[in-house]
Amino acid sequence: MVTVGEELDRAVQGAFTRPIPKSAGAQMRYLLKKHGGRTMPVAELLGISQRTVERYVKNQIKQPRPELADRLEREVRTRWQPQIRAKAKQAAATTSGIMIDVQARFGYTAAVGSTDQARVRHLTLALPPRHAARLLQAQEAGVDEDDLRELAAEALGEVYFRDGGRRAHGLEVELKDIVDLQFEL
Fold this sequence. Notes:
Layout: H1 4-13, H2 24-34, H3 39-46, H4 50-57, H5 66-79, H6 82-96, E1 98-109, E2 119-127, H7 129-141, H8 145-161, E3 172-184
Antiparallel strand pairs: 1-2, 1-3
Helix pairs in contact: 2-5, 3-4, 6-7, 7-8
């Protein structure tokens, strides 16, 4: 299932200027550098022994198990190019906003006499900087996926369904089943 948090991360990673290290040894050395050269925090982070970390650093082990490879890449990716990541988030939150491409089932709570039948829609919209800022700040604060979905639904509700607040004032939008979702900074 596609999540808002993962897609926000992917959008920010699109701003990277260099690719992350490819080999397990290079990824392990990068994590080791980020943890001040100490193997214990890296071992705890990845759920492996200190000796295993040392063996990857020395290229004595080259191919990690698939689940370790995924964990290793994810941990490197979350720490990669923090300044570029911060600049991309700042630009999205202050000037450029964020593009959202979503195919999902939207539910509505609307005024009497109008339909509130949920249906699948495909929307591609530019969310203004204030909505991008709310989404990115909530993600950094560690809110759960349901809250991120609610924020995305509020943004889509205002920008698309309410036309920036000019129509359908009583409309409450709920982002239900997400089929596909992409953000672009």
